[in-house]
Amino acid sequence: MTDTPLITADGLTVSYGAGVVLDDVSVTIAPGDLIGIVGPSGSGKSTLLKALLGDLEPTSGTVTRRPDVHVGLVPQVERIDWNFPVTVSECIGMARARGLRTPWITKAERGEIAAVLDRLGLHGLGDRHIRDLSGGQQQRVFIARAVFSGAKVLFLDEPTSGLDVTTRHEVLHLLRDLNADGFTIVLSTHDLNGIATHLPIIVCLNKSVIGAGDPDSVLTPDVLERTYGSPMQVLEHGGMRVVVETGPEASVLPFRSAAGR
Ligand SMILES: Nc1ncnc2c1ncn2[C@@H]1O[C@H](COP(=O)(O)OP(=O)(O)OP(=O)(O)O)[C@@H](O)[C@H]1O
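A: This is the predicted complex of the input protein with adenosine-5'-triphosphate.
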């Protein structure tokens, strides 16, 4: 693998109808990156992921993908129909395109799926209906699906949304392990303290990129206030960074911004 960027957005501007959602956004995803995109609700995080995937046409600017890049998307769990009648193994198996000659999961693939299940801590759950899993397990199934698809780049849209604190940490550890195994990972998150502060690269987005880089350079009161639109402090607690909102309705983050749903 070379160090040529996998995906580059240059001067990306996206509008849905009249409103500009992304304005002159430039980001680079290099092999081995583990990047968190943070910003308040409606700041354009999902739109940026879609544009980087090539799922929407920018109004101006460019997205360049290395030809060998195959991205596996792990969607927001809220967007998934959990009543769709499939088991965990079937859900994962469907990630690969099938021809008419072998529309079914082959014996070899069954072994691969079992290995992916083991790797993601889902051992023994292959025959379970996807509805009958915990939130953390459901998130893992869709990560497993992306891994089984053969993707080496994973995009996760709010992977810890709706999960409790312990499960959030488990997902964070899993993503770190996958990153250490060579996966390039880009995720969007509202969870500054639970997830973002633990990532090596953070992109603060609010229509445009307010700051991008390692936590030391990005997690500053100035960048955070310009991203979230309210005053923030960054405290050290037990060797860890904690971002605290210091406005009138102060709280320790994660939070939904005032504009949040
Ligand atoms: N298909 C669409 N058509 C029109 N407007 C859209 C569409 N998708 C998103 N938007 C608008 O674009 C803006 C950015 O949305 P986006 O989902 O990218 O933000 P986000 O940062 O991911 O938000 P959240 O954190 O709440 O998921 C919002 O104002 C949203 O209402």
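The first helix runs from residue 45 to 53. The two ends are 41 Å apart (CA to CA).
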